[in-house]
Amino acid sequence: MENSEKTEVVLLACGSFNPITNMHLRLFELAKDYMNGTGKYEVIKGIISPVGDAYKKKGLISAHHRVIMAELATKNSKWLEVDTWESLQQDWIETATVLRHHQEKLEASSCDHQQNSPVLERPGRKRKWAEQRQDFSQKKSLEQTKTKGVPKVKLLCGADFLESFGVPNLWKGEDITKIVGDYGLICVTRAGNDAQKFIYESDVLWKHQNNIHLVNEWITNDISSTKIRRALRRGQSIRYLVPDLVQEYIEKHSLYSSESEERNVGVILAPLQRKTAEADT
């Protein structure tokens, strides 16, 4: 299949990245290999979008530090980048809204590119015909922009993220529908994981199962941000678990400790706060 027939894909990972680990980076590589291997898609970019401080997760350090660590981790990557839009929002932003932001950004960029392309006028033709042809060409370009011509943003996650859809009051039903229906999900899971069963047991996920790509992680990697923070609290080495530049940054700023882990203790997670507030109105 020629590249022109493939759907260009941008992988978007949302999360705490507290801190970013080698496992986070591996998710992108695994997803890229899988999607490119189908012959239907071409992954052109990966975006890391750290959540803002308003998420209020226990032990969540400042977004300022988490963004810098993510930028250090992707410094040598040719296709991964860090986006700060979500982290800079004063209020917590739903994942579906973050996906929409990046899709609209791609559409606007593609639209600008199409409109800036010159339309050549054939010699001997009347100006009016050239103008009509240009109007038609731009209209057609806008239509193509909304379909084949624009890369598609898809959410990249791990199996635990997928299963969080089942946590009561954590997700809005319409947001889950938007994520899996309008954008699509690439979920990196492990052999023997119940992700497929979880999809089967959910009517919404089952309905959109063709837009959910399960990627098996055959070379298992059990690194997690939680375990990294635990090791740091205990004065243990985290080398080779996070990129070297990230380790150096953490040590330089003494980022994780017993005190930092108590941040937001007793505070209700932002999605649950919003759900409770909406129920009271």
TrEMBL record:
Recorded metabolic or biological pathway in which this protein acts: Cofactor biosynthesis; NAD(+) biosynthesis; NAD(+) from nicotinamide D-ribonucleotide: step 1/1; Cofactor biosynthesis; NAD(+) biosynthesis; deamido-NAD(+) from nicotinate D-ribonucleotide: step 1/1
Enzyme class at the top of the EC tree: transferase
Annotated segments matching region Disordered: 107-127
Domain Cytidyltransferase-like intervals: 12-230
Catalytic activity: nicotinate beta-D-ribonucleotide + ATP + H(+) = deamido-NAD(+) + diphosphate; beta-nicotinamide D-ribonucleotide + ATP + H(+) = diphosphate + NAD(+)
A GO CC annotation given for this chain: nucleus
Main subcellular localisation: nucleus
Pfam family, one: CTP_transf_like
EC number in record: 2.7.7.1, 2.7.7.18
Subunit structure: Homohexamer. Interacts with ADPRT/PARP1.
Family the UniProt entry places it in: Belongs to the eukaryotic NMN adenylyltransferase family.
Protein name as catalogued: Nicotinamide-nucleotide adenylyltransferase
Organism, scientific name: Balaenoptera acutorostrata (Common minke whale)
Protein's gene: NMNAT1
